[in-house]
Design goal:
Blueprint: H1 33-53, H2 60-63, H3 104-108, H4 122-138, H5 143-153, E1 165-169, H6 174-191, E2 194-197, H7 238-241, E3 256-261, H8 278-283, E4 286-291, H9 296-300, H10 306-312, H11 319-327, H12 332-346, E5 351-356, H13 367-380, E6 403-408, H14 413-424, E7 433-436, H15 449-462, E8 467-471, H16 475-484, E9 489-491, E10 501-503, H17 527-530, E11 533-535, E12 543-545
Parallel strand pairs: 1-2, 1-4, 3-4, 5-6, 5-8, 6-7, 8-9
Antiparallel strand pairs: 9-10, 11-12
Organism: Musa balbisiana (Banana)
Pfam family, one: XG_FTase
Subcellular location: Golgi apparatus, Golgi stack membrane
């Protein structure tokens, strides 16, 4: 993991080609005097060109930045890690029954992230093994799957089936898709249903199969067509069906229900979380689920699942941390991007600070304002050092490892300002700060597979950070923080107060749009369960899990 970093400020773009693999451990190369002279002459023109191109960059924008000094709290390690070093099975989360070469990230991710101090409960481990057995028995290309498909084609459900399914339908960007896959999987585990994912072309070849001996990909000959636009005219929409008197004996009971759990769902759709809806949902053999929400907090406030959830997760703030690391393994080509970039640029840093910037149209902010907010947050919280605008660098007594800043954003301007600032001026602590940005797409292109590969790469790289700063409301940041087991510092929207950032209460993502799920006139979970669900720091009215 401690690969030797190539010190470069060049923005690495992923072109699908391969960069030579770097050694996992730093090695020393002995150069003869002749070789050293030759090397200097070879690189001298390039150095002149680079220095000339970046000579005297303008820092007028810095003069307008008022840094709020503060003692802050040195973050150090985000946890006191208790797992065995390089535990490739992640405390029993992962099954050992895979061909390692077919998905290198599954067992190798432990080499790149900090060891987690959140050990999965024995009950969660046993339920995952039980789910895997169910998926092998009922998954695609099995006799029971074909039987369920025939019943689906009949457009009616006349008797209980041995295998029942949740079909996940993608919506919005990659971050939204990932948090909803995790939500749908937890629901499948709670209800003994089989999760199948409808992969559009832009999602193919991003992830490995998560379950041994079977597939989670919905076959292309699935009889219900146009799944992504089904919400426009779904004949069996859950919110419409709920409350109707359905009788399985006369053929009026549907063979599937469409669940629309997005930010713009109807109130009746959100009755999905209510007690009275559970028999209907349990009875229906096929649930077609489209969502862009992390609806896990609502499951914790549904009394129907309370006991099972308490057994699965003794600590409530680790749901995504465990299930995300269990489910989501980058496919080998994407894992190659991740490891080559990490080994080349980040692996030899003494510390790594992740910085994720997302600007939303609903809350515009200028680049100078955003830079000022980032500096106020990172310096006040002692994540990054101040720069000295008037004095030269500290005397160097010995060479030290740099602190790396991994910047992920669609835009290039932030990278240039941060890099040039720490290049042009010494820090007050004497630290060397190296800033890296893997890509800058300028616009989001979720419909493009290569764009999604870059996004997945950056989420995983951010999850390897020692400390993380994220943009409020961003599902991209949610995925990174939860995979890495990190409580981030959240950059608040400019209209949300004077503080530049605040520390998240947990690593869990936020359920942005929980309106209507409270289930009027029903008990909505015990006081203990409800006490683990709090309002999000970054989304007014949003809900998240805490301990």
């Amino acid at each position: 993991m401690d690969g030797k970093r190539v010190r470069s400020s060049v923005d690495l773009e992923l072109q699908g080609g391969s960069k030579p693999e770097l050694q996992k451990r730093s090695t020393s190369t002995i150069l003869t005097p002749g070789m050293m002279i030759f090397t200097c002459f070879m690189f001298l023109p390039l150095m002149v060109l680079l220095l000339g191109a970046n000579r005297n960059p303008s820092f007028e924008w810095l003069l307008g930045v008022e840094i709020t000094a503060g003692k802050g709290s040195k973050y150090g390690s985000s946890a006191s890690f208790s797992e065995p070093p390089n535990d490739k099975l992640l405390g029993g989360l992962l099954s050992a029954g895979f061909d390692e070469a077919s998905c290198l990230s599954r067992y190798h991710s432990a080499l790149y992230r900090k060891q987690s101090n959140h050990t999965p409960s024995p009950y969660l481990v046993s339920r995952l093994r039980r789910y895997e057995a169910l998926h092998r028995r009922c998954g695609p290309n099995t006799e029971l799957y074909q039987k369920a498909i025939e019943q689906l084609k009949s457009n009616r459900s006349t008797e209980p089936t041995e295998c029942n399914y949740v079909v996940w339908v993608p919506s919005d960007g990659l971050g939204n898709r990932i948090i909803t896959i995790v939500s749908a999987f937890l629901y499948a585990v709670l209800t003994d249903k089989v999760l199948l994912v409808h992969l559009s072309d832009d999602l193919r070849d991003l992830f490995c199969e998560p379950f041994p001996g079977t597939s989670w990909i919905l076959p292309s000959d699935f009889p219900v067509k146009n799944l992504e636009s089904l919400f426009l005219n779904a004949p069996w929409r859950f919110g419409d069906v709920l409350g109707k008197k359905l009788d399985a004996t006369d053929g009026s009971f549907p063979s599937y229900l469409y669940l629309h759990l997005t930010h713009d769902q109807r109130f009746s759709d959100h009755m999905f979380f209510c007690e009275k809806a559970q028999p209907l949902l349990q009875r229906t053999p096929w649930l077609l689920l489209k969502s862009n929400q992390y609806f896990v907090p609502a499951l914790f406030r549904t009394s129907h699942y309370e006991k099972e959830l308490s057994l699965l997760f003794q600590n409530k703030s680790v749901v995504f941390h465990h299930l995300g690391r269990y489910l989501l393994h980058p496919a080998n080509p994407v894992w190659g991007y991740i490891t080559r970039y990490y080994d080349a640029y980040l692996g030899n840093a003494k510390e790594m600070v992740g910085l994720q910037i997302r600007i939303f149209e609903a809350a515009p902010i200028s680049s100078d304002q955003m830079i000022a907010q980032i500096l106020n947050c990172s310096i006040h919280e002692r994540l990054l050092p101040e720069i000295n605008l008037t004095e030269p660098a500290h005397p160097i007594t010995q060479r030290t490892q740099p602190k790396a800043v991994l910047l992920t954003t669609l835009y290039s301007g932030y990278f240039e300002k941060l890099r040039n600032m720490y290049y042009q001026y010494a820090t007050t602590t004497g630290e060397v700060i190296a800033v890296y940005q893997p890509s800058h797409e300028e616009q989001q292109h979720t419909e493009q597979q290569n764009h999604n590969k870059k996004a997945l790469m950056e989420m995983y790289l951010l999850s390897c950070s020692d400390a993380l700063i994220t943009s409020g409301y961003s599902t991209f940041g949610y995925v990174a923080q939860a995979l890495g087991g990190l409580r981030p510092w959240i950059l608040l929207r400019p209209d949300k107060g004077s503080s530049a950032c605040l520390r998240a209460t947990s690593m869990e993502p936020c359920f942005h749009s929980p309106q209507g799920y409270q289930c009027i006139a029903e008990r909505s979970g015990s006081k203990e369960a409800v006490g683990h669900v709090r309002e999000c720091e970054d989304v007014p009215g949003g809900l998240k899990l805490v301990d």
